Every structure is written in C-alpha cells, then in structure tokens.
Amino acid sequence: MQSTSNKSVRGAFFNKEVATLFKILKRIKDDVNMVFEQDPAARTTLEVVTSYAGIHAVWSHLIAHELYKKKKYILARLISQVARFFTGIEIHPGAKIGKRLFIDHGMGVVIGETCNIGNNVTIYQGVTLGGTGKERGKRHPDIGDNVLIAAGAKVLGDIKIDSNVNIGANSVVLNSVPSYSTVVGIPGHIVKQDGRRIGKTFDHRNLPDPVYEQLKELEKQLEKTRNGEIQDDYII
Ligand SMILES: CC(C)(COP(=O)(O)OP(=O)(O)OC[C@H]1O[C@@H](n2cnc3c(N)ncnc32)[C@H](O)[C@@H]1OP(=O)(O)O)[C@@H](O)C(=O)NCCC(=O)NCCS
Q1: What predicted TM-score, i.e. pTM, was given to this entire model?
Q2: Pairing state of beta strands 142-143 and 128-130?
C-alpha cells in the first residue's frame, strides 16, 4: 500500500519535472524564433543560442525570478549579477517580464525591481526602466505589449507605457504614454498618435512671416503714437 502511494508521488513529481522541462524548451524555441524574426543579422540557431546576450539575460532572469518568488532573494540577486557580468544587462529578479522580450545588443540595460513588461517588447542597448530616486514601493514603469524602446532611452518612475508605443532613442520619459503613440525628446513628449503627427499643423498656404509680423507691429505702435495713445520720447 505504502509503495503504491510512494510510486504515485514519484510519478506526479516526474510528470511535473517533465512538464517544466518542456516549458523551458518551448520558451527557448520561441525566443530563438523571435531573434530570427527581429534581427536580420541572425544566421543559425547555434549562433543565436550562444551569442545573443539579450536572450541569455532573459533566461537567467527566468531562474532568478523563480527564486525571488520563493523568497530566495540572495541567490536570486547572485544569478542576476552573474548574468550582468556576462551580458552587461541588469534585470532585477523581482521584475516581471512577458514573452518574447528582445533585448538587442543589451549592454547597459537596467530593468528595475517593480517593473512589469508585457509581451513582444524590444529594448535596445543603454535603456533604463528605473525609478526617479524619490519613491519607495512600486517605483518603476509598466510596459505594455508591442512596445519598442530605442537605444539609450530612460523610462522613469511608476508610469504606464501602454501597448504599441515607440520610444525614441535617448528620450527621457517621465509621464504615462497612451497606446499607439511615439514619444521622443527630453522630457519625452508625444510626437505621433494613432499614426498622425502631433503638434505640427502647418498650413502651407499661410506660413508665418516674421519680418511682416514685425512691420505690422511697428505700424501699430506708430498709429498709437500719432493718436496720442503712447507718449514716448524715443519713438520717432
Ligand atoms: C522613435 C522611433 C522608434 C521611430 O518611431 P516612429 O513612430 O516610426 O516615428 P517617426 O520615425 O515617424 O518619427 C516621428 C518624429 O519624431 C522624430 N524622432 C524620431 N526619433 C527621434 C529621437 N530619438 N529623438 C528626437 N526626435 C526623434 C522624427 O524626426 C519625427 O519628427 P518629424 O515629425 O519632425 O519628422 C525611431 O526614430 C528610433 O528612435 N529608432 C531608434 C532605434 C534604435 O534604437 N536603433 C538602434 C539599433 S542599434
């Protein structure tokens, strides 16, 4: 009786281990396919598995995050730091990251503890998803699905970057961004939303003419002086 129950416990454990192994292999396969889709420079599976720091950092993070969830904080940090040493990418074990995160080149990327990253996100080298240094608790951004964060961009604070957003290279984003937007600059501002340019509504038939504007202003001042509305010795 005892041995039958031992067998079934062993069987359940074995099934769980096999299921986990399949999950890991599927994740590896998906990540390799993602690199082929995103990077035209990728040639062979062996090259991707051995030479893409971005996916090494993500795989290490999966282990570190599991340990973090089990409150094995020091071991989790240790794995994260070893991954940083080899990849130049620092992902805090507490960060929650979705599927198909592509960190291209990677060097100098920092992802904070309370960050949540959705699916299909692309991040280039030098990106920081960090805090502003003033808050405690939830202090890092939430990134939606299909977001591109270009090289050197900093996304700071407990803000929400909705899905399908592009963040331009070297931008510093301090406020939440609605979906289908492009943000550039310091501080980051929306330049495109739902495919339309924002803040540039040039009417090409009525382009501004600064010289004409100045002459009009002078004419107004002279008129006022003639009428005695302005009495200024310096106005000729
Ligand atoms: C922002 C980005 C992702 C493009 O997004 P997009 O939605 O296609 O936006 P557009 O290219 O139409 O640009 C919109 C406007 O923002 C401007 N802009 C784009 N990127 C910018 C940046 N990093 N800083 C300042 N302005 C920028 C464009 O000049 C354009 O201005 P305009 O309306 O006056 O012409 C892209 O410009 C970018 O930054 N790519 C960098 C990718 C990268 O990191 N490559 C490194 C590979 S190693």
Answers
A1: 0.81
A2: unpaired
